[in-house]
């Protein structure tokens, strides 16, 4: 009997201890139009970066609440799913403490209550400025289109503005990640910067500690940076094989490192900026060909006929290759076109991504 009483006492002590306050409470406020809808609490699995639902609740009078008994800091989402797609979603850090999330009718979200979420909110406060401008630009584009007033010039202008706002958003995320890569808030935005040029991601890798470098996305970035560094300014060119106009294999080393300055130009027949700038390359080629300049254009086209047709149309009278297996594009980490690389007579990389006036001045510097 005495042992039974002791057992009951121990059960009450430890049993009730396990039923204490939850480690994490999430309180949300959202537009009343979502009343009666299910909101899902999801965590982002690092291995595949896919959301996994771990809890759900019904929105009542514009409010919802989650309570989690055990959590460790990780990227999470709150999502309302309609027809298999997110109709509303917001990102935050699932961690111990009381987290308050408020979303307004414009899609702006305020996250407060815990250290990493307060830090993340500081970033979002800056990020929402270009985001709202981009949203307004898209709404204006839609309004004009519906009214039949959307001209080509207006479309180009609004599209250019939207691209600028998108780039500003990514660069803000990049700066935040660089400063916070070793905490959960910084890691939560890694996906946002994956589309940026590799040269902008070098600092992220250099600032990451050994634990952060084990993150799957950081491993991808590290691999990209190693490839990028192999073809950085000051390095010797990497030889690649592509197909020439005669449908025969051709090596970059057939031209590079042979005593001439070589301009490698990555382009495509469908790339409007590439084609617009081609007359400038023609002028440079004719002006400096006899002084020691060679141009090698490498196309990323899929359509050989379109590639050859555009070459003839633009009268590109210098060596041409098409990167059928993407070897050249991968080797030189070509994320966007046009993309140029200037080599010295020994094959050393002098400059990258020069266009227009900058390219002309750089070539003139060496071939006066």
UniProtKB/TrEMBL annotation:
It is found in: Cell envelope. It holds the Pfam family AhpC-TSA. GO terms for cellular component: cell envelope. One of its GO terms (molecular function) is antioxidant activity. Keywords: Cytochrome c-type biogenesis, Disulfide bond, Redox-active center. Residues 231-368 form the Thioredoxin domain. One of its GO terms (biological process) is cytochrome complex assembly. This is Peroxiredoxin.
